[in-house]
Amino acid sequence: MSALSPAKKKQASMEDFLGSPRSAGKAGGKPAGPPPPPPFEEVKGRWVVKDFVADRRTREVRPFRGQVTRHFKSDASYEVIYEDGDREDLDWADLWPLLQRAKAEGVSGPSQAATQPAKRRGRPAKQQQPEQQRQQAAQQPPRQQQQEQGRAAAAAVAAQAAGPSSPAGKGAKRKQEAGAGKGATAAAAAAAGAGKDVGAAEAKQKKPRAPREPSEPVLELPLPEKDQEYSYAKGKEPWRSLPQFCYPVHEELDSSAAAVARIRAAQKIFNKHLIQAEVDEDERVSQRIAELQAMGRKGAQEKRPSKRPDRVAESRTKAEGSNISGKHVVGYLPGWPVGSRAYCRAELGCINFHRPPVAGIDFVAAEKSGKGVPSFATSVMVSGWYQDDKDDAETIWYTGEGGNDLLHSRQQVADQELKRGNKALQGNITLGLPVRVTRKQKSSAYPYGACYIFDGLYDVIRWRLHKGKNGKNVFQFQLRRRPGQGELVSQRVEWGAISAPRKLVPNNRQGVVDLDISRGQEARPIPAIDDTWLTCGDNHEPQGCVPPCTALEDIVDEKALVGKTMRGVNQERIEELRAAGYKPSVQYVTAYEYKDKVADMARSFKAAELPAQFRASPHEYLKTLNHGKLPYTANGQLFSVRPVVYECCPYWQCPDGDACPYRLTQRPSKYRVEVFQTGRCGWGVRTLDTIPQFAFVMLYMGEVYKREEHEHLVSTVEEQDTEYTMDMWPRPDINWDGSDRTPEEAAVQTQPEFVCCGLRKRNVAAFVNHSCQPNLFVQPVLTSHHDERCCGIALFSMENIAPLTELTLDYGPAYLADWPGGCKCSAVNCVSKQPAAGEAAAAAAAGGEQAEAAGGGSIDKGSGEEEEEEEEEEGEEENGSDDE
Asked: Which terminus of the chain has fewer Cβ atoms in its 10 Å neighbourhood, N or C?
């Protein structure tokens, strides 16, 4: 043999290691590990013994016997089939002690396990001591003989009762079979009396499972090499060639009305619970702190409680079945386009986008991905918690999970291992599957200090293992964004400095026409933007529009713009308007103007008087007016929609003064907005800030008329119409608990007595357009008087609203009926796009089936995912986390 040739290692046989001293451990030391596995031919058919919980109620533990039947090369595991038909895959380290135990007990064939209750799936019970095992094995043969005798007696009687087959037709044959069954049952009962109830146990046992048909051969994919790039042509990804891959891959976004509505419904319910959970958590933590303080020194040693309203809201949403459940979604989540935002991780979990509440990698384990299919990731979070991350926007070197002191120094303190999420990302390379990438953006402008923006699908193209900046081994995976998904909305994320989005200010907004249409009447300027013609218009022709409340002298001077910012109206257009004698047709106002008879009636409105017994605590009286509950949270969010909200009156001498949280609509809104040219519906309004659900956005201001008087003007004055008119009364469609009233209950309400018209005098709210899928709603409020005939009109957010999103209202069916050519809102569920009644029913049924088949999930929890979610939560600590 050449000196350079490695010596061949002898492979141990089954008999060698089962009887060798190594299997029992060295004397006076710790038992050694299992020897190298022998050839499968020597393991196949061997018996194993393992303890399981057999009775969930009594927690009784019993041994079950099984045989080794198959070996899977993909993950080096062995399939064991137990006597009750259950199957289990074990690796060699777990199988070896079970083989040793079977040999020590002399197990060589079936036991009484077939008559025992089926074992409980889950973790094996603690193994019995060898002495107990020997005693149990010694007691088994007599009972086994009794069982055999009982079976033989039952079989003999059954055969006698069956008799010879009759030449009669099928009906007679069925009767004979039924008679044979009765005879067999009687025989089993007779044998049970003689065999100490063994036959009865046999009669009660379940029918044996039919033998499994031979499965198709499992295709095994090679593992990706380190530091090697893997790119696959479209349609040639390895996952497509695996018949056992059982997950649909959404490579195109489903933006149908049904998919979008499903996501929005789950989000709205979650955020409604979140608003209430914040109050409940404040009370719980305050109560617990008071208890600890009362305990004195002992209480000072206890851990201080922390508030987690997000997790409470998630639990409540799931408890009522309002979350989106189902299998993991691979690729795009239906109804969640690129650029979509959530404001806490629990919200993403409720829509089935990213399930783990802490871990940065959401993945499907190998045992659930299909036989022979490796584990793979579906979603990753880029949050700036790992120092070795490198975010270059379109490409990312993403650090794997584990070994990071996330709750304290955020430093890498241990080597990472190739398991769980790290192993799954390696599986994405093997399969050619993309992952959803979401970046965390931090800003005090967000409701909870951070925002999670979906940036699209990224391919995992390379992996490496190297020394990180702290000298620890870390796994890194290179992610590359798929083309054709639009520009990135989020900013790049760096360790220790999560980026915030760029600030939007009027003088750097392309297409700005007017820096402030309110002329300083509002606390924050409201710019007007027209950028519809900048990319394709001829600057030598008159271009751009001017808001109806902006005079020519109020148009912004180009010298006041920053950098290369272009004005939204050119000089040619200004000269054209000047030649035509243009004058503003609308006056901007910030208060109600009572017209004609209404001015006299306003003096007799019901006063907001504070009873004497509540003068020291006006908020208690406010609670009474609002049917037992204060209207707003400390963050200024409405708990729920109500017929009308009574606010703290400015004349009540409230101890909180102007800062009273229950004078919300009496202060300027804290959210910046701008008017802009929509290109389809004239001027509209969009937000420049993030607006959380149920937040106050703006008041609707204008001229207040008696309803009959305004209707007369509409019918007699040509330019007067109802497009800018709002009713000033409590909502007839809502109960005080926030539930919807039935159409019969709503019809009982009388007509409103007063209306607000924003045709000639208005504030920014009159520029808000209609949408069949609105994000604002009307909430009547009462502040300085308590006359419900003439409520103030406040607009609140219906959902979380991202910056640069248009703000819209549902004007109602009466408005749409008068709109020439139908609705122009372009929402996915716009009434102009809806089919006829029969077609709509058929489309809805088909859409539900397609969503279920596609794995988009449904707002219904009962889908068998509870066990999977529990496993994910159990593994959070060892996962390594990416947030919180």
From this structure: N
